[in-house]
Each structure stands twice: as C-alpha cells, then as structure tokens.
Amino acid sequence: MFELNNFFDNTNMKVIDRKGAFTVFEHERDLSVSPDNAVTAYFSSEMNVRRRQVYIAMDGNGCVVQAGAMQWMLGDLKMGTGVTGVGNFLGKMASAAVTKESAIKPEYSGKGVMMLEPTYRHIILMDVSEWGSVVLDDGLFLACDNTLQQKTVARSNLSSAVLGKEGLFNLSLVGNGIAALESPVPKSELIEMELKDDVVKIDGNMAIAWSGSLNFTVEKAGKSLIGSAASGEGLVNVYRGTGKILMAPTA
C-alpha cells in the first residue's frame, strides 16, 4: 500500500487531460526559481511555456515508455526491454536507425503508478483505435499502452523522403490503446482533417500524425516545375485516401 500527499491536491498542478491509464499534469507556475530567473519564469508562465508531466496508473496493465523518460515509480512495477531474442534486438536497432526513435523502449507492467520527466512540449493523448493505425512524425512518441503494436513504415516512394524532408521511415502505432505524444503545439491549435477518398496538399512539414491508410507522396504544386516555381509554392506534401491528419497551424 502507498499514499501520495501534496500531489492530486497540489494547487500548482492542474490536470489538463486524461485518457485510460494516462493523466497529463501541467505546472501552473515554476516555483523553484531564484531572483536571477524569476522574471523569465513569470513571463514564460504567462505565455503558456509551462512544465507538463504524464502520470500513468497501472493495475495489472502495462505501458511502453520512451527511453530515459521515467522520473519515478511507486508500487509493484517491473521493467522489461521487450526484446525477445537477437533477431528482435537487431530489428529494433535497425528500426531506431531509420525512425530516429530510441532502439529499446522500456516496458513497465504490474500494479503501481509512474510519473514521466517534465517537458515544456505539449502532451497529446490519442486513442489509436479511432485511427486504426497512426503514423507519427519523428520525435513525437513519449509513451503508450503495451497493447499497441509498434511498426516501422516506409514511404510509398523515394520522392517523399528526398523531396519532402520527412525521412523515408516513420514509427506507426497499431491496435487498441492510448498513446502519449510530445507535440510542438497545444492540442487546441491542432487542425484535424478527415478525408474520405479525397486529397490534401500541405506546403511544409506541418502534419504531425496521419492515418496509416493514407498514401503520402511529395508532388509539384503545379502541373510543371516551372509553373510550381512561378507560383512560389514549389513542392507540397500530398496525402490521399481515407483517414485523418493532425496538422500544426505553424511550422
């Protein structure tokens, strides 16, 4: 048995989102300041630059966490690597090399609670079952239920890697469960596009997540390179098919 004091009733920590085992806390102000950085801390809070943390409650379930993200854990929790053999380890290493994610993501299971390290990035809780499968932009993954399967997906053609500056491979999450993502912008600013046998063209690396069912390519904005250059648009990221896209309003 354990008890947490000055935690859920801490007036400086506000719950801003909750899904499944995951709860997102936001520190209203940075109280651990000195006269040297008090002004910066004050205006940072006013501009929504605040520390955020993910709290995970496990009651026999499990979660996968980005390497190095655990701050503390309490209770009967056990950590594993998810590596089942040499071939599996080499596969994870190869996947990490092309997706820019950590090769080994610790997996925790049992009965207890865990808090992840604070971050100034915004935390997005996503129900992956609503997407079927979701492809993530590089560096967004923070944690997820261990019921989700992680896959490395390749672009449909080389143009998306060479021209779109997106990389040839990305991490994909498949199945039923919740994922916690680190976003450069708050959830309230993200634009969700839902396509049904349609197409969207985005000028720049602004999509942070999209359905695995969508076909992603990079194409000319116009019918020719000259026309594209004349319009000032050049090349655009194109998503076709049926699915959803989460897009940041600014790069």
What is the strand tally?
Answer: 15
Q: Helix- and strand-based class? A: mainly beta
The number of helical segments is 4
Report the mean per-residue pLDDT as an integer: 85
- End-to-end separation in angstroms reads 47 Å
The helicity comes to 10-25%
Shape descriptor = globular
Q: Tell me the fraction of residues in β-strands, as a range.
A: over 45%
Rounded to an integer in angstroms, the radius of gyration calculated over CA atoms is 20 Å
Contiguous low-pLDDT stretches (5 residues minimum) are 84-99, 226-232
Write the element-wise H/E pattern from the N-terminal end onward. Answer: EEHEEHEEEEEHEEEEEHE
Major beta sheet summary: 8 strands, antiparallel
Topology:
Elements: E1 13-19, E2 22-27, H1 38-46, E3 52-65, E4 70-80, H2 86-99, E5 107-116, E6 122-127, E7 133-136, E8 141-145, E9 149-154, H3 159-162, E10 169-174, E11 178-183, E12 191-202, E13 207-211, E14 215-220, H4 225-231, E15 235-247
Antiparallel strand pairs: 1-2, 2-3, 3-5, 3-8, 4-5, 6-11, 7-10, 7-13, 8-11, 9-10, 12-15, 13-15, 14-15
Keywords:
seven-stranded antiparallel β-sheet; mainly beta; 251 residues; 15 strands; 4 helices
Task: Please summarize what this structure is.
With 251 residues, the chain is mainly beta.
Description:
A hairpin with a 2-residue loop joins strand 1 (13-19) and strand 2. The longest helix has 14 residues, at 86-99. The strands form 2 sheets. Strands 1, 2, 3, 4, 5, 6, 8 and 11 form an 8-stranded antiparallel beta sheet that branches. Strands 7, 9, 10, 12, 13, 14 and 15 form a 7-stranded antiparallel beta sheet that branches. Mean pLDDT is 85; it is low at 84-99 and 226-232. The protein is mainly beta. Helix content is 14%, strand content 47%.
